[in-house]
Design goal:
The protein has about 375 residues and is α+β, with helices and mostly antiparallel strands. The protein is built from eight helices and 17 strands. The protein folds into two domains: about 260 residues, no CATH class; about 100 residues, no CATH class. Helix content is about 25%, strand content about 20%.
Length: about 375
Amino acid sequence: MSLSGKGVADRGGATRRNPAFRGVGIPTLAEPIAVVKSERERLDMSTKRPVSSTDDSTPFPHPTKGSGMVFVPHTRVTFGGTFGAVSTAVEQWSFRFNLNGVATPDTPGALANVLKDAWQTHLAARCRSRVRLTQVKVANINAEGKYAGATPPGIWTGDIAATGADNTLVPNQVALAISLTTGLRGPSSRGRFYLPLPVYSADTDGRLDAASVNTMRTAAVAFLDAVNLAASNATPLSSRKVGILSRNGTNPQVTGVRVGKVPDTMRSRRRSMLEEHSAHSRARLMVTAAELQARWGVTPHAALHGACLLAAHPDLRITSGRRTPERNRAVGGVQGSFHLRGRALDFAGSRGTLAAALRTARCQRVSCGCTGPEEAIDEGDHLHVAW
């Protein structure tokens, strides 16, 4: 299964092995897996051309992705929509998979309409009502990885809301990985698609409970069976089934489904979510007079003035309080400095902040008998205030 787009993962080779993942059973889908020719039989790697076969199913090297990438004709199906009403939605989701088989539908539009019904019948109730299906696209892809023939992709467009409950607020990036298996071994034998905003009940550890896992697994199997039936009945009739498109030119049929207990996060959805940061603020927690007295060794009266000044100008920061005589001499303080008696504080900040704080300090009174500062001096790189 080749997956891409918003809310989509790569083929099985990119599937992460999560130790928290616990699959619950692998239901078998309707048809046994077809026998796949080996890459050596299909492709002569020395010439990078098909080996003595004119069958359209013969893989062909992809023209832009190097000789190691080959394609077989297939039908690509993409489901997509929005989160919230189409008229106001700004975020989208999508997932896609491939149908294997040589024959391609000559009426892809009709198939897209039937596949829409499959989503509505089996998956709509498993997604939160925020999810809206607005498009199903069916495109025939040739051996060169391009649209096949003159038939344009078939596209159904509309607006179908999911019917699952949305009574808990979860971000749009939350999804559930539906893992697909083929019965083969190796990185190209499995794939996955992501169900947007799944409805589930959680255990106390935050993981899906057993009932939710079984419900999701049953719904996924029913959906894929409906897709297989619709694809096989499309004109012309064929044996097309959901498959895993691999780099070696094979497209084996999906035969099993696994659902884990850990909700997933779609990185592409997370990257596309609209971020809105709060306004930048350098506001600090309120500093009390008692804290200033304990931290800087100043008198209670000076500490009260300092706390009020910091509350009025949060960008200020204290750089000096009570000093010892040795410390006062080391920093070039004057003899008899108010710092020696714990009655002064020095503040640093921007020029605008210091100028505003100087005006505040000169007018500040913290009690009925308070006469204001003994000193309030703008020293250029800091503000000195003594009380």
